[in-house]
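cache lookup: miss for this entity combination. No prior model stored, computing from scratch. Input as submitted by user K.M.:
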Amino acid sequence: MVHPYTRFRIRLARHAVAQLASRLRSSAEIAMLVLGPMTLGLLAFAALPAMLAAAEPLPFALPLLCLHGVAMSLPIVLLRPRVVPADVAAWLRPLPVPPARLLRAAAAVAALLTAPLALAYAASLAIWLVQDPGWMAPLRAVGGTVFSFLLTLACATGLLVRGAALPQRSQQAPADAAAATCPPMPRAGWFYLWRQLFWLPLWRGAAAGARQGALLAAAIGAGVLWMLGPQALPRVAGAIVTSILLVLLAHEADQALRRQLARVRGLAAGWPVDVAALAWHARALVLLGIALAPAAVTATGALAGAWHGTAGRFYLLLAWSVPPLLVLTPPFTARGRMALVALAIMLLCATGSQLWN
Amino acid sequence: MELNPAVDIKDLAFHFATRSVFYGLNLQLGPGLTWLRGRNGRGKTTLLKLLGGALAPSRGHIRLDGLDSATDALAYRRLSFYCGGEAPALDWLTAREWLELHLALYLDADRAVLDRHLDAFHVADIGAQPVTGLSLGQYKKLQLAFALALPARLLLVDEPFNGLDVDAVGVLEEVLARRTRAGTSCIVLTSHLDLRIAPTVTLDLDTQPGVL
């Protein structure tokens, strides 16, 4: 008989997974349509890192397998706020649950969450065992993969226990937080309102700002590398990575803006401020931020002489018009938006890969 | 602008997705303190939000000094302020940033009065704390200190005594009594507790025609 606490935690996890699946359904449909055969091929490679590590001599194999096992548990860090939402954790923590029960419940939830990984490993192992390449020692490959998976499961359990257990005792007294409540200088203006209502929420208690920052840096880095054309990076790979990052950056920034606009509209309903004008200013500033990436690609491309041909000019036109297109078009449906994103990626990739042909 | 504020509600209808709250509500509110009473779920907070412009009527009009809450929305909102809500909105801001933002939105707030109220409520030194880290009473005091520093013609105060300490209740009652006597603003207040200050008008939604 499963204890009600464990049953509740499993139900919570299933609900979170179902919610996530419904959110990702539209994107998954488009991704499967565009990248279907490639996705199936990737499945065969799921267990490859563990099998390759297991083929090394034991002193190298063990640390590599441990690293792989721990790394594969990291998505649980992202999933944990969904599996144990903050409002649920607040009343879950004071419940008189013995540590052993907490551990068992966390292990059950971890098993549920890592089950797809186990299935992918099993399919991948089966494929490679049938292929039986020369470098693979079948027993060590199976043992290594199982070891890596068990380590992932253990780490996932540990992460979930931390999420639902009593909060950690704070080690350090905070610095004196006393500060005047009344601000010294009155401020006003659209830029100030944008900063308080759209910029700060990206960074405080949210990962959206860091995500956009990372995407922006990656898009600029990939674009510059593509244009410089080092020996190790084929031009086509540079075009594909840069194009994907440019579109994902615009999509991510647009989604974050739409979410925050929905929040602000509710809050600002009674304020003496023109919310529609505020929304236009927010959109303009988001576009200005995103523009850094195409600007960097344009500038380095000009130095590398990339924009002389028709493909170059068409790529520039696309790279500059995709962000406003995503930000200024209505959201349609989730599926429609994902189709637009996929189309933009495909057009940019196709044009970008023709640049040096 | 008239010396005495006047609120005119005509043929007001408002529906949530699952139920109707008002249908054909007619009210006139004058200067002074209006004590809005009624059982839970009668629509006290909804009426305050409608009066504050945060909700839009499905039908009918709300006018403050002749300004319509729907057609003259910005001008209307400059003259009114809704003070309520116990869960902090703008949960990414600190207390000082919260106040700074509201000062930027309502440019005619009296900063000297605001300073005085923050002191009187003992919340003058919580500026660095995030609003989500404030206690219920501290958040309420922050909102009230700001609301009472506004020259609002229509001040809407939802359950102001919830979570306040005894000293703060005394301060609030004194300020409300003073503003009521001055008669320059229309204060609409909801409270399940009996008021220790005399309201100008008591409005009971349980017996009011047009409340469903």
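stored under new cache key. The longest strand of chain B covers residues 20-29.
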